[in-house]
Amino acid sequence: MIYTRLEETHTKKRSLSHAKRTRYNFFCRACKFFLNGRVRMNTVKKTLTEIQIIERSIHKKFRRELWRKFIRAVQKYELIQADDKIAVCISGGKDSFLMAKLFQQLHRLSETPFDLAFVVMNPGYDAASFDKILTNADRLQVPVQVFDSDIFEIVQKSSGGSPCYLCARMRRGFLYATAQNLVCNKIALGHHMSDVVETTLMGMLYGAQNQTMMPKLKSRNFSEMQLIRPMYCIEEAAVTAWKNYNKLEFIACGGCPLKSYCDEGNISARAAVKAFLAEMKTTNPDVEKNVFNALQCVNLETTIAYKKDGVIHSFLDDF
Asked: Which distant-in-sequence residues (6+ apart) come within 8 Å of 273 by Cβ?
């Protein structure tokens, strides 16, 4: 009887000891697996190429600021449909090159079939600026097609008013024509939220009109062509942060040879509005977001008048 109880006690002790050893061994194996995994992860991270790091930063480091907002604009404004062929227009600045990378990653991941053509228009860049564009395209692995024009020369010979407006109009017309020749049905421009807000305030403060830069629109002169702005919900500060994080350098203001116009003291309306917003942000950091959101919740019941299809409608019509 005593022997039996001792045997039961001994067996229970052995079982308890075995259970502890099992848990200890499991813990050791788990630690070893975790540490080995971290070593493997660190090894992979160290062997990433520069382009992999740049592309990875869009999905990891700046996922909320860039990738999610890019996808939000594409879905919310229905910017891409099946079988689209989109001419991604690259001016050489940070915005358009980031747009190209966003499109490349979406093209790899999307279940909706669409094609891309990366277009660089050379309106007359100086050699250094043009080389910088091609160098960045190669570094970021964006397969660009270059098309030459003499737009800068034409604008320089014109007289009266700001040359920026004429240049922008001519460049857009050239891009539409080029995209049509490439059998594209859409052109994509790299305008972001900050551009939208600045354009809206420019219209109000300098043009006495309340209108904004749309996320997409139909071309009036090129049938079946549309313009889309997939970076519509992205703030410029996020684009700048991505550029600095990856130590990238791009040409400023499209390598414009008309910079002397600004150097002579002709401050553009956009530059003045940008300075105004920067000052406002010192006391109200959300000022840009507030203006942007206000554009998407206009209350016609408290609007004095609005224009649709060229016809002005007054609140008195239904008073």
From this structure: 198, 201, 202, 205
On whether the CB atoms of residues 87 and 178 are closer than 8 A, the answer is yes
Residues with Cβ within 8 Å of residue 255, at least 6 apart in sequence: 92, 125, 126, 128, 129, 130, 132, 133
Q: What are the structure tokens assigned to 12, written together?
A: 């229970």
Q: Domain limits at 248?
A: 51-288
CATH code at position 220 = 3.40.50.620
Residue-wise pLDDT for 136-175, tens only, equals 999 999 999 999 999 988 888 876 666 777 888 899 999 9
- Name the domain count of the chain: 2
Burial level of 44, CB count in 10 A (0-12/13-18/19+)?
Answer: exposed
Q: Which tens digits make up the pLDDT trace of 93-144?
A: 999 999 999 999 999 999 999 999 999 999 999 899 999 999 999 999 999 9
> 């019941």: which residue's tokens?
301
Residue 55 sits in the same domain as residue 42: no
Entry pTM: 0.82
20 and 79 in a single domain? The answer is no
